[in-house]
Amino acid sequence: MNNTFEQFELSKEVNRALAEIGFETPTPVQLESIADVKNGVDLIVRAKTGSGKTAAFGVPIVDSITSSAAPKALILTPTRELAIQVNSDIKSFAKYKKLTAEAVYGQHNIETEIKYLTKGVDIVTGTPGRVLDHLERRTLYPNEIQYLVLDEADRMLDMGFIDQVMAIVEQIPKDRQTLLFSATMPFEIQTLAWQHMKDPKTIEIESETKTVDLIAQGYFRVAHNEKRKRLNQIIRSKKPASCIVFCNTRRMVDRVSEFLTQRGFAAEPLHGALTQARRLKTINKFKDSKFKVLVATDVAARGIHVDDLDMVINYDLPVEKDAYIHRIGRTGRAGNGGVAYSLVTPDDLMTLYEIEEHIGALIEELPLPKSGKREPRYGKTHKHEHKHKRKQGAKEVRQISRKVYSGKVHRTVIHGNEDAKSKLESGAKTTKGKAYSEAQIKQIVADYKGKKGKKRQSLLQKIIGLFKK
User: Which has the closest alpha carbon to 132: 173, 166, 86?
Assistant: First the structure.
């Protein structure tokens, strides 16, 4: 009885909802926070990723408020994905109470948001920019807000939202209760907290085992130009049922995702340049195990909660040391163990050492898994092999050239692109999802014939990669 949610004297509606979700034993952050939230105490809570922070503030808020025409609680999150996830959790907690909860965020139809805000929403979760937009439009009325929650406050600082957060805080009634939850606590966040909170209580959750202790970590030392090849080997040898591969840039996410797809993996990209609809669709497909490998940037992956994630791979080491903890925490959520690997080039070694110092643990260097069947390549090789490949390649180009000029090129490499497949069926010449006209194909072959030396060899590789006989 002492270690269940019943100790918090929650309403029967909330207890029923928690039972359906499968919440039985509170996590440390929930044990420390729920009673204080119910008692009206302002809180600064520092707890690791995946510790159950959403329920720590969501459950007591849902239990305490009653429905009305204006919002009673406002929850700010750094990303759209996290706003959607938190809103979904709040709705689960409030399933048997007559409360409404909605999320507002960029790239979502603002007219739809205005429509349900006008009807009345009890708990609003949103990103700072969109919340401020609604406040300025007067479609979100802050006068009756009793609870203000800053979730993942460190990320909001990192992403440059601090001025927007301050503008929002100044419009919320002073007699509110403020709850600040974060995995890390930079000086700027502490300053904000003390300036805008009433005698806040600080809670630091030192779990019996830290996130990094729950996760088997290792790194593979690789050359910069062989990172994708080694990534392929790792995933093939480890065979994870689900895996997130982290890259530092959108461009690299697209490259790595395309590479893995070409190698036969069910992989999809996730980054901020994609439309919100596509991002949500990708996240839901990954959660439903429709594909195994998600290639993502840090910001896009915030708010993704996947049960029993097998593996995290840092294709690029993160620039921010705290981001390393956030990343690997995806595979060790709520006390579960996990596996995290990193690809480390010679230029990354100092960053690796700094991460080790930051997390207080050594990351073991692992031997690269043995590759299976050797893939053909046109890089450095023995002289006689190079000569053989050149002759073989020239023969293939001559065959392609004859087919092009005789009109017998019927198909090209598709790499699983549905749009490309439809174009192919309609008779277009296609490669990697891009349609090529007959004239363009002829020009490629003509360019090859006009080149010499390395330029000719480079174009040879391109032509061979474009076509199937």
Answer: 166
CATH label of the domain that carries residue 12: 3.40.50.300
Query: Is 56 in the same domain as 137?
Result: yes
Round the CA-based radius of gyration of the chain to a whole number and report it. 27
> How many other C-beta atoms are found inside a 10 Å radius of the C-beta of residue 392?
12
How buried is residue 298: exposed, middle or buried, by Cβ count under 10 Å (0-12/13-18/19+)?
Answer: buried
Residue 373 lies in a domain: no
Please give the residue range of the domain that contains residue 326.
211-365
Helix H segments across 184-249? 187-196, 211-214, 227-238
0.90 surpassed by pTM? no
For residue 468, the SS3 value is coil
Which tops the pLDDT comparison, 48 or 323? 323
Kindly report, residue by residue over 210-234, the tens digit of the pLDDT.
556 778 999 999 999 999 999 999 9
DSSP of 288-312: TTS-SEEEE-HHHHTT---TT--EE
**Which residues sit opposite 215 in a β-bridge?**
338
Residue 409 lies in a domain: yes
pLDDT digits (tens, 9 = 90+) for 116-135: 999 999 999 999 999 999 99
Query: In the beta sheet, which residues pair with residue 344?
Result: 221
- Sequence-distant (6+) residues with CB within 8 A of 297 are 246, 247, 248, 249, 250, 253, 270, 271, 272
Where are the strands (E) in 56-176, listed by range?
73-76, 101-104, 123-126, 147-151
Same domain, 200 and 225: no
Please, where are the H alpha helices in 303-369?
321-328, 349-359
**pLDDT tens for each residue of 326-381:** 888 778 655 566 899 999 998 898 889 888 877 877 888 999 987 654 443 433 33
